[in-house]
Structure formats: structure tokens, C-alpha cells
Request: fold
Amino acid sequence: MKVKDELFGKEVLDADIQIVGKVSDVVMDKHTFEVTDLVLKKTGFSEQIKSSENMIPMEMVKVIGDKILLKGEDDI
Reply:
């Protein structure tokens, strides 16, 4: 998988299907080259107020498709 093509810019949705941001970067394990975390940039009105980023561990990702869906409480 090409990380840039597959992940960068994808919208990330929480378990309630609310947009929490877009993937702006990834953190990779330097030994295994596996993606360990997604770096999200907030989108919409919150982005205009304050530029901020959140890190989401890959263990919280449920599905990667056209969008990235995070696990909910029932999935953990």
C-alpha cells in the first residue's frame, strides 16, 4: 500500500459518522515500516478558529475505504 495515495487527505469519521478531520500525516514504526498512528487535521469551522492536529492510533481504526471509520465503544 502506498501510504500517501491510500491515506493522505481521507476524511476520518467517528463511530457516529461525524467527520473528525482529514489525514494530514502518518507516524510509522522505523523498524517495521508499519503505520502506527494517523495525524488528523481538523476540518470545517473548528479549523478556522484554531489550527490543531490530533493523533489517532491505528488500533482505533475500524475500516479504511473511501473514508476512514473509527471504532466505537462496542468495537473496543
Q: What stands out?
A: The CA atoms of residues 12 and 68 lie 5 Å apart. The chain has two helices and six strands. The longest helix spans residues 3-7.
